[in-house]
Amino acid sequence: MTGEKILIVEDESIVALNIQMRLEDARYCVAGVADSGQAALSLIAETAPDLILLDIQLKGNQNGVKVAQMIREQFGTPVVYLTAYADTTIFQQAQQTEPYGYILKPFNPTNLYSTIEIALSKHRSHTHLQKLNYELERCVQERNQALELVNQHLKVERAKRKRTETSNLQALEKEREFSDLRSRFITTASHEFRTPLSIVMTSAELLERMGKGCPEERRISYLHKIREAVRSMTRILTDLLTIGQAKADQLEFNPTQIEVRSFCAAILSDLQLSATSSPSVQFDVIGDRTTVFWDADLITLIVTNLLSNALKYSPNRTPIELTVQCPANSDDQTVIICLQDYGIGIPPEDLPRLFESFHRARNVDTIAGVGLGLAIVQQCVKRHHGDITIHSEIKRGTIVTVTLPIDARL
Q1: pTM tops 0.70, yes or no
Q2: Residue 168 located in a structural domain
Q3: pLDDT over threshold 90, residue 226
Q4: Can you give the CATH number for the domain in which 342 is found?
Q5: For residues 107 and 81, is the Cβ–Cβ distance under 8 A?
């Protein structure tokens, strides 16, 4: 008995006075006496008692059970019921309010004090347990937050590590590709340059040996061979440089306005397609919108390489058809370049590797070439955001279709 504040809620004044005297004799502090539920709620708000002794059978609109429920919801103060008899229904209703005990009237002091002390002790234990639970929940929440931060940090670190590993793998793969490209370059250059260099050396030696006595017709022939050999080496070097730039993502792209008909006609003229030893090329442009925005150098590489392949792998006197289909109206925004030959065709097993650098089909035999033409075409088409497809049959020819946007700047 340490002077805890106790509120008495009893509508029988004699009983309330008796309880008050007993409590004060036991050195409890009586916070007040109320004879109704409303008065009790007001006193609780004013005095904040440690315990409430509540008559279960209060008179008026609010009996003790209803008042206890309101006290529990609004204040959480522990309640001990005072009752003169044991009614089963009342006790069942009272039990739902979770009381801290019952005192039966008439009571003796010992029963009163022991019930009060048990209720106070139970409430202290309950309050202490709630505090411990609150602290535990707070600690768990803090730990969870800390773990979440650690987990997020680990996720970030894993993502960084994965990006680094991916970047390293990509760098290693690119380095491997460059190394392979350098190796193939050396092999190809040493092989493909041997013939034109030999022609240059032989022609130069003959011109030197014959001197002024060399007939004019033969001298022109030797100079022509030297010029063609130099052109061949220049073309090989250009192809090697272009594919190297493409692999390193350094292929320049500068779209300008081009008139398709005249542009392609100029390329055909440069290839000297009128020569009698070459198959004839049937060139046609379909559609009215022949003005496009493409990179002139890259388009030249596309058309030149496709035509060179068609000429190289087609027998004499077999036609080659070059068709450029331009948009007929403003709704269509694509240009289709179609090149068809009736040459030796491509074996089915070589089709999946057509765009690999230095790869050549197995049926080319002794036909000269380095295996870079289609690889260069594909890179130039990609740079224009276009597409290329190839359909081929052995001994029946090949159809190459290149689809490009009319304005590659967009």
Answers
A1: no
A2: no
A3: no
A4: 3.30.565.10
A5: no
